[in-house]
Design a protein that fits this description.
The protein is 39% helix and 17% strand. It is built from 11 helices and 12 strands. The protein has a 7-stranded mixed β-sheet, sandwiched between helices. Helix 1 packs antiparallel against helix 2 and helix 2 crosses helix 4. It starts with a strand and ends in a 10-residue tail after the last helix.
Length: 350
């Protein structure tokens, strides 16, 4: 089966219907679909609609709660601790970033720790909410171990993603979105859907041996050796441990098992106006981008790119021509439609 293209609007409506059938409110289902399809539009297919069947499986296991009671448990003018009650990650994280933005308007910064969330999708989405309010945004995640610390052949830390975004003036915002692993597990899943091997250095198998077979990959490897695995460990101290919900130690030391799909997270918004003139800040970001783009390219390169530039180009192309979905993803979406009794959009029909 050849790659199929579908327009973002049709795909978003379909995914919304799937999650409504799974028991979520129309508003929450729409939020989930919006974040997943946004990832596909930006070219981050590893965190897009290929996750739908995984999320449905997690709902069946009890890892995701369609009726979550999200609540603020602790709060000061600048910070908050939110209990997610296993809510859909995008639902609670969108709410948390809006809390952070409101606090940043009042006191200059909002720092929110989320406890007991689930997979949050493409993390760049949330700092971009702050950018839309002329603020800088930050988000990072921790989950049970799936990555080998430098020097180990077993999982001991999570490949904690980090996203930072800042507004620009005439140019597009700068948007960094990265995992602390060589590649996110979603990219391994995407290789499975495409039926292709993964590069050397991405992962280990269950026995701790290097593998290029995405179906055998069990343990991710950090980028930059000790640097990324140390960064991931420190993220656990600022999120999970801060929330009183450690996710690494149950695996490292044994004892109580963690909930399937468990995550803790931090989102923050920084009010630029509390520090400097916003228009001046954005103009300086434009100048900074221009300076980086003006550097001579290294051998083998045609230009110097800045964070978010590739995704912006993909977004323009896919908005115009539709989102390409590989065979494996299409098959999973068809299965989800049959399971939930939802009509498939025309491009996805057999």
């Amino acid at each position: 089966m050849a790659e199929i293209r579908i327009d973002p609007g049709s795909l978003e409506q379909f995914v919304t219907a799937i999650f409504e059938k799974a028991g979520f409110t129309a508003e929450d289902a729409a939020t989930e679909a919006r974040v997943l399809v946004w990832a596909n539009v930006r070219g981050v297919d590893s965190h897009g609609v290929l996750r739908v069947h995984q999320y449905l499986a997690n709902i069946r296991r009890g890892g995701m709660n369609p009726h979550a009671q999200v609540r603020i448990e602790r709060e000061t003018p600048a910070v908050a601790l939110i209990e997610a009650d296993c809510a859909f990650g995008p639902v609670v994280t969108t709410y948390a970033m809006n809390v952070a933005i409101d606090k940043a308007r009042q006191v200059g910064i909002g720092w929110v720790v989320i406890r007991n969330t689930t997979h949050q999708g493409c993390m760049a989405y949330y700092p971009m909410l702050a950018v839309q309010q002329d603020m800088a945004g930050l988000a990072f995640v921790c989950s049970p171990p799936n990555m080998a610390p430098f020097g180990a052949k077993a999982a001991g830390v999570h490949n904690s993603p980090l996203a930072i975004a800042v507004p620009a003036g005439e140019r597009d915002p700068l948007v960094l979105d990265m995992a602390t692993s060589m590649a996110a597990f979603g990219k391994v899943n995407l290789a499975q859907d495409k039926g292709i091997p993964i590069p050397e250095g991405w992962a280990l198998d269950a026995e701790g041996k290097p593998t290029t077979d995405p179906n055998q990959a069990r343990i991710l490897l950090p980028f930059g050796g000790y640097k990324a695995s140390s960064l991931a460990l420190m993220f656990e101290t600022l999120s999970s441990v801060m929330a009183g919900n450690g996710l690494l130690t149950p695996t490292l030391l044994g004892g109580e098992k963690t909930r399937p799909g468990a995550q803790n997270s931090v989102v923050a918004a920084i009010n630029i106006a509390a520090f400097t003139d916003v228009d001046g800040y954005k103009a300086e970001i434009d100048r900074l981008i221009a300076g980086i783009k003006g550097l001579p390219p290294a051998d083998g390169f045609t230009e110097v790119l800045v964070p978010g530039e590739i995704e912006n180009r993909v977004q323009a192309e896919r908005t115009a021509n539709g989102i390409p979905l590989p065979e494996g993803t299409v098959l999973h979406l068809r299965q989800a439609a049959e399971e939930m009794g939802v009509e498939l959009p025309a491009p996805l029909r057999p």
